Amino acid sequence: MFPFMIRIYGIGGYEEVGRNMTCIEVDDEAIILDMGLYMDRFVALQEKDIEMSYENLLAEDAIPYDGVINHLKNKIKGIVVSHAHLDHIGAIKWLYSRYNVPIITTPYTAEIIEKNVKVKKLIRVNINSGYKFSKNIAIDFINVTHSVPQASIINVKTKYGSILYGLDYKNDNHPIVGRKTNMKKLKELDDVLLLIADSTNADEEKKTFSEIIAKEMLRDIMLGMETDGKAIFITTFSSHIARHKSILAIAKMLGRKAVFIGRSMYDYIESAEKLKIVDFSEAEKIKIPKRSSKKLEELNKKKNEYVFIVTGGMGEKNAVLTQLADGRLPLKIEPQDFIIFSCNVIPTPTIQANRKILEQKLHRKKARIFKDIHVSGHAAREELRDLIKITQPRHILPAHGSIDKTAAMAALAHEMGYELGKNVHLIQNGQSMVI
Amino acid sequence: MFPFMIRIYGIGGYEEVGRNMTCIEVDDEAIILDMGLYMDRFVALQEKDIEMSYENLLAEDAIPYDGVINHLKNKIKGIVVSHAHLDHIGAIKWLYSRYNVPIITTPYTAEIIEKNVKVKKLIRVNINSGYKFSKNIAIDFINVTHSVPQASIINVKTKYGSILYGLDYKNDNHPIVGRKTNMKKLKELDDVLLLIADSTNADEEKKTFSEIIAKEMLRDIMLGMETDGKAIFITTFSSHIARHKSILAIAKMLGRKAVFIGRSMYDYIESAEKLKIVDFSEAEKIKIPKRSSKKLEELNKKKNEYVFIVTGGMGEKNAVLTQLADGRLPLKIEPQDFIIFSCNVIPTPTIQANRKILEQKLHRKKARIFKDIHVSGHAAREELRDLIKITQPRHILPAHGSIDKTAAMAALAHEMGYELGKNVHLIQNGQSMVI
Amino acid sequence: MFPFMIRIYGIGGYEEVGRNMTCIEVDDEAIILDMGLYMDRFVALQEKDIEMSYENLLAEDAIPYDGVINHLKNKIKGIVVSHAHLDHIGAIKWLYSRYNVPIITTPYTAEIIEKNVKVKKLIRVNINSGYKFSKNIAIDFINVTHSVPQASIINVKTKYGSILYGLDYKNDNHPIVGRKTNMKKLKELDDVLLLIADSTNADEEKKTFSEIIAKEMLRDIMLGMETDGKAIFITTFSSHIARHKSILAIAKMLGRKAVFIGRSMYDYIESAEKLKIVDFSEAEKIKIPKRSSKKLEELNKKKNEYVFIVTGGMGEKNAVLTQLADGRLPLKIEPQDFIIFSCNVIPTPTIQANRKILEQKLHRKKARIFKDIHVSGHAAREELRDLIKITQPRHILPAHGSIDKTAAMAALAHEMGYELGKNVHLIQNGQSMVI
Amino acid sequence: MFPFMIRIYGIGGYEEVGRNMTCIEVDDEAIILDMGLYMDRFVALQEKDIEMSYENLLAEDAIPYDGVINHLKNKIKGIVVSHAHLDHIGAIKWLYSRYNVPIITTPYTAEIIEKNVKVKKLIRVNINSGYKFSKNIAIDFINVTHSVPQASIINVKTKYGSILYGLDYKNDNHPIVGRKTNMKKLKELDDVLLLIADSTNADEEKKTFSEIIAKEMLRDIMLGMETDGKAIFITTFSSHIARHKSILAIAKMLGRKAVFIGRSMYDYIESAEKLKIVDFSEAEKIKIPKRSSKKLEELNKKKNEYVFIVTGGMGEKNAVLTQLADGRLPLKIEPQDFIIFSCNVIPTPTIQANRKILEQKLHRKKARIFKDIHVSGHAAREELRDLIKITQPRHILPAHGSIDKTAAMAALAHEMGYELGKNVHLIQNGQSMVI
User: Fold this and answer.
1) Would the ipTM clear 0.85, i.e. be above it?
2) Pairwise CB contact (< 8 Å): D216 & B220
3) Quick check: C1 pLDDT over 80?
4) How far off is chain A from D422, nearest CA to CA, in Å?
5) pLDDT, position C4
6) Which domains are seen in chain D, by residue range?
7) Are C313 and C321 in contact (CB under 8 A)?
8) How far is C12 from chain D (nearest CA, A)?
9) Cβ(C53)–Cβ(C45) under 8 Å?
10) Mind listing the pLDDT tens digit for each residue in B179-193?
11) Could you tell me whether strands B161-166 and B152-158 are parallel, antiparallel, or unpaired per DSSP bridges?
12) Closest residue of A to D417, CA-based?
């Protein structure tokens, strides 16, 4: 028999932070892992007057180029989705119809997908549970901490051994929402052929801090500074339910009511409440802030009684914070108001440019700005080391980043005894490798 | 009598490289110097679907906010323009109608202005000649080298002394096009009250290299590398007539014909030829490259016989190089073709983002890329030192840059015996100062 | 009478982070504030084989050039010291003998000074208490939080008004050791002529996090990671008693004993214990680790029962961590041991170089490295804004940093209505200004 | 027979720019290529008071760790040296005695080696000539342009094919001194197994400019600026004979006499003159400038009649420029004197720190500083592409740089169809690979 076993196709995310998509071919079957957007290019397109077609999105690198697996179409059994971030689910809208297979994912992720696109067959699998495609391929959704509920490392089980798809991952001992990373399960694995590893922070020599540190940072500012009479605006990632929960708690200590504003934020929260992941019933939620909104006018009159949590930390043109900075809404930013960026800046060109322009507008409003009040959702070098130590993969495939990040992941593996080209593999979008 | 003499209003360009505009008030008269665009914001707007109105341009910081001189309207006698770059003339289109006064500038600059906007009264004054507004205010256009023909330092002569408006300036001993900086005239000045100084490169410890160095660099690549059978695309600033002339000369040595493509490039060249500044009759010029252009199809068949000089070095969405990179034209970039960026990247966020995206597209085409084959048009620290030494201004006002640049200019002045706050002044857009 | 009131001499620290020294002349009297080392240059000299003379230290910029106040010698009444960091006290050893006046400072600072140099007259004044030089000059030591015990803002009271010497300062609501910044006192001041302001972090748009955040960060690593069987080495600033206290507490939770190693660390702790600021009796302290030390050999045998807190975070040649990295001591770093840098890297050239070399040595030992587990002791932009708002100084003099830092401080002041040159002043070492 | 053919040992230079050393094992024979110093660490040691022993140099990473080829000692037939730079020859002094074999190199390189160390057997081979070790191994020194005379790509010819050792290399069409790169010879090679490639500038998207550009830059400053009455000091790499020649020529045009000062510069020039590579008889040369030198005192009196070319561009403690900046010599730097750095700053920590400190000293002298008047001696991305295209190696081994540089080289190879791990290999110091 032919010695071929498993082929891995790096479709997207192997040259950038974004548009993650991988395909695993096992003998005569295959599954797809994630279908994400490259947010930087997607945002750039949104701002232009261009039709959002498959072709245009491809031409601008906003979605993964899945032509490289055209020859596998008849083999593909399903699309498995790791978690609900747009760089992992956002391209489903354009790519899904090209495959006549079910999507399999955790319940929260499924909710979010359904908000964005109609899917014919969507199979919900609880976190820490599994799904069987055939006698040759089955998957487990292993619970991990990340910056969105029900994130998972996907364990793809084949007769040749397991493949761990570890995008995205962090090991947080105090996750605020959800359970800790299922280390027990990870430790039990004894036949890991390959780890597809999250390289986002592989070059940071430390452990990524727990979400509880972000809460303490926010508390230090919100309770420690003189906010009397001033509005507090906080922006963070819409999907970051744990962060929202911390802000809600601190707002309460401060005697203020939390008001969440923005469509994507509304959607993520609504889904989390529906699945009883959190209960934000004390907070107000405004889905779409209108230019002639009585509600906003009222809120504006007693701004100092609220903490506003808004979309727009990346300076997106139509997000709430940009609208506020432009003065397009009845809710106003006034001198000395607090603007807290509880997020980093995604280091891609369009997003960096948008963010810089947003900050200059806020400066003109004479707002007080607090930047980077945030901890990452991605493991740093020392947590990645532990993941490798525990799972003992025979091969490592760095992903989720450009060459500097994947090279840092490779360097870590090398320090642990792996050898580049032999059992650590650096590939680019569109390339495949055989194990 | 009231001790007031002269007030300088920094309207634009005192916090950024762009939207230059200054107003000088002398007793009961005033003149405006330059009305420029902030290209970074202007480009961002162009790419969006926003009406290009005065209000929208203001809201996005694309033009200077001239509301700060509203109270002077009746005093203003004219708008004096230093040279033909868009960050000095581009806002005339929106601001000119707010003032019922003539524009006074050099012939080449006048040509370019008229290509962009209809001006009721446009007075042409030869370089190294003058114009008299009244018995109290007169101006001289002192010839300087820069990266566009007929650039000038404007000497504003008042009864209290001279004000030198030195944006933009370089001291090039081999300027390729036009004469050298008129040092004789500058040395003769003996009552300079104030120098408004070009801070763009004040933090670079050197002399800005002569344009002849750029020519040598281009020659080293174009004649020194194996270009047989390959197309050569060069992008540079549309207005850079000297650079165009160098490229034309090298193309000839190489036995290739030069083809200039792009609207703004066409306009700048046409004006230069009209005024007999250069003669590019050997070259082809294509104003607007169309998607169904027979001409381009023909050129494409024997690409290796041409050097194409195209717009788009800043990655602007509809410039020629971007269209080429997108494959939108019958002229094609093929693997191993030469793409020479004979320009720097203007260090502002939108432009940096656009450029980065453009480069990634070119990499996908497997083109050979040569970046930064360029010398600046702005004086560096040691030429600025000489300008100060020669003109002996009583006061210095750093302009044309953000705080890091203007602070570097101030530091240089300080090293030469000036004192911050006393005779070196750091102001921001919208502020004024009295001498 | 002559309109002269007060002259401020910026002797050191106005062009760098280091060698802080300022002189205030009030009519016919004067006082000196601080006499610090420029650590970067001092460290460079220590590593070379050069005599540590006044002349050599001056030639290398390691100490402030106090020649600029030679003409004031007979007027000087005392040397007032703000806190016990070497960039504020370290030059006393070489400069003190040039002045025949007492040193006045807080008790903890006095202890540390006496460990380094013999001082003829050292006057101890309790924090939040005062001292009177004459009917014209008196001082108050206003308690502030910083990264060393008994740090103060010095209020210099003159008949013309107060001068606040605010180097170094932070507003921490949970300081771990000592009391919070005395905001009550600062709010009561109503005639502040001048604030000499700490510009170290003026360009960081946020509030500097509380020391409690650093404790949580350390806890997250030390308790949250698998340390069993591994040694834990932590390096931090020797004087950072609060950090030491946090580490001690976490070590206890982990069931390990804390061992402090290094001469300067020993001195700072011994003084803190002597003054009953802390009680570290549970910990071991080793002043000078010897190459043939039985003690270290014993500790080495059961390294996993200890947390070692050592000097050397800046990569100094003879500090403990460098000796460990070089393998010069019986205590050994082994693969997988934890090295936690609970400090930043001071951004000066020699220190950055030393630190980088140290890290490479640690990598060769295959240690697990955790960097920047730290919060700063200097106020960021938003705390500085509050200090200005509360004290309402008529003038502001940015200090404690190079031009980029002091310009950021000036920009903040400008945003608050101050004007550069009028009531915000940027000076360089050796310059003076009159108010 | 065992399928083993050739093993390559990366001993030094695979993780840094410096201490280059590679060993090639072919069946039962082996040769060593280069034995260089890591200048950054070597300089750091020189400044400290440490014995320059093999052990100490190793401990500080100043020389390559050749322990990894201890088992090959009996197989090694010779040490082949590519060119006369210290990062390729500097470690011979400490490593040579460990091997009882001849050194084979070009005549100029041999001269320089003999100035530094006594070598028992030194075989001179003319550039573009060869040497035969045995029937199985022979070498050719293929002439290449670089920043020192008689630099070569070494072609190691074995029965299995050729190995091209391409450190250091540039393709300069106007090399000022010596002949152009021997492209004819390179094109003729038809069995290149492996290219060991110079990655120094692999991340720069361009062609490295010809040495003639550096000459034009120097001319632009020296002839284009007002130097009357001022001294001109130029520092450049001691070994850069072509640069020296250009400076000499420009000095002559300016009517000034060139004076070379400094020991290493003296040595490199003396050797070049001895071999008739250049004739600098018009210039003065001072080997060791003494503190009490009549000669220097005389030169100092009419400084404006000379151009002084001095050592010390990297800020080395005892180099001439540092001594001048410290005022340690009778030759003085006065305000407005010209200091031209005709060199880059090697991007390693100690050197960057030293250089920064030197610049600050020069600023205090109020000298006019011109930085980076230089072109590199290492090929950039597009020349490297050509070298690969011409020589068609089956495998590529990036060297001469840290991971970011070697990864850039690997990315270029990948773009050209090579595959990481298959025929592009990234190794670290101490590792080996088999082809």
Assistant:
1) yes
2) no
3) no
4) 7
5) 55
6) 6-207+377-434 (3.60.15.10), 211-370 (3.40.50.10710)
7) yes
8) 15
9) no
10) 999 999 999 999 999
11) antiparallel
12) A431
